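Operator note (shift B, R.M.): manual run for Ribulose-phosphate 3-epimerase requested after the automated queue skipped it. Running by hand, logging everything below so the morning shift can see what happened. Input copied straight from the record, untouched. If output looks odd, do not overwrite the archive copy; leave it for review.
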Amino acid sequence: MAKIFPSLLSADFLNLNEELSNLEAAGVDGVHFDVMDGQFVPNISIGIPVLEAVRRGTSLPIDVHLMIESPEKYIELFAESGADMISVHVEATPHIHRVIQQIKNAKKKAGVVINPGTPVETILPVIDMVDYVLVMTVNPGFGGQAFIESTLTKLKQLSSVKSANNLTFDIEVDGGINDKTVEKVIENGATMLVAGSYFFGHQNYDDAVKQLRG
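Run finished. Output pasted below as returned.
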């Protein structure tokens, strides 16, 4: 069964503590925390003070997705501020191996991320080091985008690499995940689902969880 990590970027920040309580009650597996710097992606989002607040407000695992340039400068800071999992874009640093090591040294789960236009081959040198691979199924930077169908090929390819090499990493998908696309991504190997506007568009989060889990 795929794990569900609602994206807090779509939550009601005025009532964030209540949102976290409702997510826990709905039985989600963790929360996804998007960090954007206005450089690597054309948007600016949330950072350390909000992460610290979320950490105080929930015992759920926090999956921090760094959409920032030079992520190696900030790994320790995010690790110390409450992240349980940290993922970095292969496109954002020439030192992806070092960054994954930094995350591991901080005793956190390490993830590597690829954009829709980035080949799976670019992450093969670190594929045996990571706990999860995040495949962006929309272009990063903004919520509410339509799912990019061609990313299903990447999921299938990653699933084959995983099986052929007897690896155990999770395959996470982020972007356009809803009741229409969830079956396709799971069929092609996804084991972690990030859902933002679709999930928080439900008045009852139990319903969102049921629809994503089928």
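Quick read of the result: Residues 3-213 form a domain with the TIM Barrel fold (CATH 3.20.20.70). The mean pLDDT is 95.
Leaving this for review. - R.M.
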